[in-house]
């Protein structure tokens, strides 16, 4: 039953109260995503945690945020109601955000004023308290706000309610988009009393302020809201009702007892028909939820830090967005949502309706899952193209070597089964692979046995040592290191004296003759280099590095300072630049976001429309729980599969979702849409008759009991008086 202080104002057929709810959701999502955007950085650079530990705590926090909605739903539907639950848990939420902002103030414990907190335990404890409060707050209000917004509409406003859920989803992504842009910028500012450090207090403080604004806006609209009172401890009632039905059915499992239409009907002996009907509605929807986590399994691999699609982007040519790459990876999804939601609501769905196609909510959700599966097929096709361009690294039983000729003369080299010729100051074009130790001979000299470490990339430099030719292993590069060497270069000094090399404003240091510098990680683009000899003479030049490339620059013995000194410097390509353009990821992002819009927005509306009046928040929490389960499936499948090729993983996930999509489509065929309000009204009308019948049966039992008691008293009295 709904109640309100006065008839809600409306604008264009929409209750004006939803304005406050949408603004509240925008501010709350800005607060949550803004804080989360810098959380891992805070762990790593402020609390000085290791990468693995920081990411573990981060994912634990996110998982907690999706588990607490169950608690919020129980409180809302059973005890406080949605309105009060949102108010109280928003206060907890805001306090948590303020605690996080305070925990990031380094001056609190920086007694020696060196910019480093002296009591890290204090900051860790405070931040953990803040995160727990935030998880309780954001998770607790998550199922309530959407359901509370749905409560503002009458039963005949189904179209307006569907539009509201689309606007509601837009506000979520608008808040997410702005916060993930703004809070990293705030963090980059310098602030502090005694010493200026990266401004985490500001990066956390602004989301805290937005949460306070969200709370104030929500309270301001209080008098305009339609408020559904809680129905008592409904979850306990539901559990007891289901338990009794199962128990009673088991007791009457014999074929001598007549069958009932539904197994929940076995609870009729103890529970009223209205509650049983409501439980049936909830169980029908929860049963449909079972396949849904697979969608979120694919969705969450899209653009979160460290996800498969993000890692795929690092192996592609991103020159067209090189300055915006980190930003685009986290904002492309909300940007597409802001574009696609209005298109779907204003163009696509109306066109489908005009074509007389019955595009029901469950059919929409099925199509959304199919789009997500196709997105992963597109990602697999892109990955196949990337794999063809990536360098082939050695396995754990192989070794790879590159040979460099630092001699001013041609070398004829035999290395195991390989025979090749190197011109002066050149290198082999690719790394050669060896699966066992080999013998190497230079210019028909006596062969020498060479043993290289397996699983590594090794560089062998052949140079003059006095009057003889010799070789030396000057650099060993592991597979993992090779990935860290992307956008990098190193210098090999073949000059007759030590040289100092600088990259931009950073000095590599002195490099002795026939020595090689370690790899230096660089930003892609045009890089300036400076070479300086012992006399202070300099040679400056620049090179353009492709996205993902790695080079060795070697300075030959013929090198000379001067105007065109860079012409003497030889360039060897260790890793080719990424050649597959990052724009090829656009189709998979578009397909996935289309699937999300069709699936998620529809799912929110469906969960509300099919839920009984006293369990709206519970079903919203159940919907959110599918997200948490999806995250767990990612870990299970990824660990269990252990596929060597990334494209195969994409196909595996796509195949699993297609299978789930088929199962869900079959389940949807047997689902009968219900109008919870009408069903509840029917049983409420029947309730007086049921109560009267039960009262008559109760009175009859009481009369019989009184009659037996009277007969017992007469019998006892007769015994005492000696009549019997």
TrEMBL record:
It is a multi-pass membrane protein. Its main location: membrane. InterPro entries: MFS_trans_sf (IPR036259), POT_fam (IPR000109), PTR2_symporter_CS (IPR018456). It catalyses: glycyl-L-aspartate(out) + 2 H(+)(out) = glycyl-L-aspartate(in) + 2 H(+)(in); N(alpha)-formyl-L-methionyl-L-leucyl-L-phenylalanine(out) + 2 H(+)(out) = N(alpha)-formyl-L-methionyl-L-leucyl-L-phenylalanine(in) + 2 H(+)(in); N-acetyl-D-muramoyl-L-alanyl-D-isoglutamine(out) + 2 H(+)(out) = N-acetyl-D-muramoyl-L-alanyl-D-isoglutamine(in) + 2 H(+)(in); L-alanyl-L-proline(out) + H(+)(out) = L-alanyl-L-proline(in) + H(+)(in). GO terms for cellular component: apical plasma membrane. GO terms for biological process: oligopeptide transport; protein transport. Keywords: Cell membrane, Glycoprotein, Membrane, Peptide transport, Protein transport, Symport, Transmembrane, Transmembrane helix, Transport. It is found in: Apical cell membrane; Cell membrane; Membrane. PANTHER family: OLIGOPEPTIDE TRANSPORTER-RELATED. Belongs to the major facilitator superfamily. Proton-dependent oligopeptide transporter (POT/PTR) (TC 2.A.17) family. This is Solute carrier family 15 member 1. It comes from Nothobranchius furzeri. The gene is SLC15A1.
């Amino acid at each position: 039953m709904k109640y309100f202080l006065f008839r809600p104002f409306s604008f264009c057929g929409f209750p004006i109260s939803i304005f406050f709810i949408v603004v509240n959701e925008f501010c709350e999502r800005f607060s949550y995503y803004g804080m989360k955007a810098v959380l891992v950085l805070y762990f790593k650079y402020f609390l000085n945690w290791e990468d693995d530990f920081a990411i573990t705590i981060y994912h634990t926090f996110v998982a907690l945020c999706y588990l607490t909605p169950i608690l919020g739903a129980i409180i809302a539907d059973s005890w406080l109601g949605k309105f009060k639950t949102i108010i109280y848990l928003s206060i907890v939420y805001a306090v948590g955000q303020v605690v996080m902002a305070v925990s990031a103030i380094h001056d609190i414990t920086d007694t020696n004023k060196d910019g480093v907190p002296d009591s890290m335990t204090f900051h860790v404890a405070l931040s953990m308290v803040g995160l727990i409060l935030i998880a309780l707050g954001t998770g607790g209000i998550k199922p309530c706000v959407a359901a509370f917004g749905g409560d503002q509409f009458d039963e005949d406003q189904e179209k307006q309610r569907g539009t509201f859920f689309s606007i509601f989803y837009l506000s979520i992504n608008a808040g997410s988009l702005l916060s993930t842009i703004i809070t990293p910028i705030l963090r980059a500012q310098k602030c502090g009393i005694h010493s200026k450090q990266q401004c985490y207090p500001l990066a956390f403080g602004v989301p805290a302020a937005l949460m306070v604004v969200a709370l104030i806006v929500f309270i301001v609209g209080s008098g305009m809201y339609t408020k559904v009172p809680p129905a008592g401890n409904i979850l306990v009632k539901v559990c007891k009702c289901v338990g009794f039905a199962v128990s009673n059915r088991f007791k009457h499992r014999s074929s001598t007892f007549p069958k009932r239409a539904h197994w929940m009907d076995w609870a009729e002996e103890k529970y009223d028909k209205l509650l049983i009907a409501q439980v049936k509605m909830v169980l029908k929807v929860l049963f449909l939820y079972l396949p849904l986590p697979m969608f979120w399994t694919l969705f969450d691999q899209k653009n979160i830090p460290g996800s498969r699609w993000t890692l795929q982007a690092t192996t592609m040519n991103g020159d067209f967005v090189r300055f915006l790459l980190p930003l685009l990876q986290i904002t492309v999804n909300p940007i597409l949502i802001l574009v696609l939601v209005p298109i779907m609501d204003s163009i696509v769905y109306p066109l489908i309706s005009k074509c007389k196609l019955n595009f029901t909510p469950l059919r929409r959700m099925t199509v959304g899952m199919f789009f997500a599966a196709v997105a992963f097929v597109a990602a697999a096709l892109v990955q196949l193209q990337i794999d063809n361009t990536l360098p082939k690294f050695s396995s754990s039983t192989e070794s790879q070597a590159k040979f460099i000729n630092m001699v001013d003369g041609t070398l004829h080299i035999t290395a195991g089964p390989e025979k090749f010729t190197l011109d002066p100051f050149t290198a082999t074009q690719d790394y050669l692979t060896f699966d066992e130790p080999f013998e190497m001979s230079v210019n028909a000299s006596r062969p020498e046995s060479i043993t290289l470490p397996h699983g590594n990339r090794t560089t062998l430099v052949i140079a003059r040592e006095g009057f003889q030719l010799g070789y030396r292993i000057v650099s060993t590069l592991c597979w993992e290191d090779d990935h860290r060497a992307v956008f990098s270069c190193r210098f090999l000094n073949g000059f007759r004296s030590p040289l100092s090399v600088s990259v931009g404003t950073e000095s590599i240091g002195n490099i002795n003759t026939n020595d090689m510098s370690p790899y230096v990680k660089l930003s892609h683009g045009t890089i300036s280099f400076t070479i300086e000899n012992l006399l202070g003479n300099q040679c400056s030049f620049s090179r353009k590095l492709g996205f993902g490339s790695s080079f060795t620059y070697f300075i030959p013995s013929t090198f000379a300072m001067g105007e065109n000194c860079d012409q003497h410097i030889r360039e060897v390509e260790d890793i080719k630049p990424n050649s597959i353009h990052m724009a090829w990821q656009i189709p998979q992002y578009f397909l996935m976001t289309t699937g999300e819009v069709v699936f998620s927005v529809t799912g929110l509306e469906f969960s509300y429309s099919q839920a009984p009046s006293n369990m709206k928040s519970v079903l919203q929490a159940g919907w959110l729980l599918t997200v948490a389960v999806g995250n767990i499936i990612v870990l299970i499948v990824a660990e269990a599969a252990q596929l060597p090729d990334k494209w195969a993983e994409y196909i595996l996930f796509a195949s699993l979702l297609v299978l789930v999509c088929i199962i869900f489509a079959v389940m949807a065929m047997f689902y009968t849409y219900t109008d919870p309000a009408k069903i509840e009204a029917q049983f409420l009308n029947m309730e007086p008759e049921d109560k009267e019948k039960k009262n008559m049966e109760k009175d009859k039992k009481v009369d019989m009991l009184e009659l037996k008691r009277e007969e017992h008293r007469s019998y006892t009295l007769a015994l005492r008086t000696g009549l019997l």
